[in-house]
Amino acid sequence: MSTYRENLQNAIMVGNIPALVISMISDAVEQRSSDIHIEPGKNVIRIRYRIDGVLRIIVEYPQNLHPAVVSRIKILSNLKIDEQRIPQDGRAQVTTEDNKELDLRVSTLPTVNGEKVVMRIQDESKTIPTLEQLGIDGQALQKIQKALLDPNGIILTTGPTGSGKTTTLYACLNILNKADVNILTIEDPVEIQMEGLNQSQTHADIDYTFATGLRTALRQDPDIIMVGEIRDKETINIAIEASLTGHLVLSTIHTNSAVETLTRITNMEIPSYLMTSTIRTIIAQRLVRRLCPDCKKPSSVDQQTLEQIKQIISKTSQIDQNILQNTQFFEPIGCDKCHNIGYIGRVGLYEILDMSDSLRRSVLEGKSTLDIKEQAMQEGMISLEQAGLIKAIQGLTSLGEVYRVSSHG
Do residues 49 and 56 lie in contact, with contact meaning Cβ atoms separated by under 8 Å? Predict the structure, then answer.
């Protein structure tokens, strides 16, 4: 057990609230947690950490300590202590027990058993990974690098919340960040601060939205604009306008796959000819947990599953079929190094849709999502499922992880 966990348990036993809060944050950082959940139950309060995308119960404390714990967190993040009936959002800057500076995004929510608190940890000392470090390689890497060379157009990343979309965009911005270009970002909130960028944070309560921010950005003589998220017709319209007037636009959108993004934009009543003339590349992504190299062990797969895997991988010409010569899969066990989870860190799965002329023609002809996906795969697109199976064959993750985050078909 780590020193911070012991400190946390000691603080709970003696009722030392400031020590409880700081030990909890220090322990969460050591465990590589992204979020801390403090959840009131009927009899006890439980603390859970989200580690590599999955929540784990860490410790529980008695209910009588909870009001003081919530008040302490509210003081740190400048929230109203006496307001417990409505949700509140704030930010806190804290120094952990080992003197690490952290930025926390704090959210409180009234529940029937008391206030629930979630703290998102933003480690400012973390460096922005390269595309290669994110797990993008081969054909996928070449497609993204080629798209980033375009002086105009729209590059979109898509996937569920917490799938690393913003990190991918920042890895791209890191490549583009040169002294001779003006890069503007409109975000909610600004999660990663990067030297050389002009970063602006939206405020919905004063009507400063992605759409108004993007419209203002166009008057700031930009070369490249990054918009945190495309949520509505107005934002996508301005992004298209920016692209048509010679700007490179990067953004995120919520869909399940690269091809479904085209359907989503069509549903926003965007004419097909505008969509096909501006969208360059769509990156769909998921994060899977990386197997701990110290304790993973070979796992057996039945013949039927093996045949299905071979069939899925053979659907795309871009995958080297020799990869199927070695179909040894691995499973998690758990050891001290990975805190008995079996996984340590995460790696990305990427589905890159490059808008070729033939795909543009298919969109203009109104072909179905399924037809467009089949055509894209014939042209070399690797699906999320295929990307996951390749990572599993390489021994980086388990089959269970792949199917936890990507669907069949």
Answer: yes
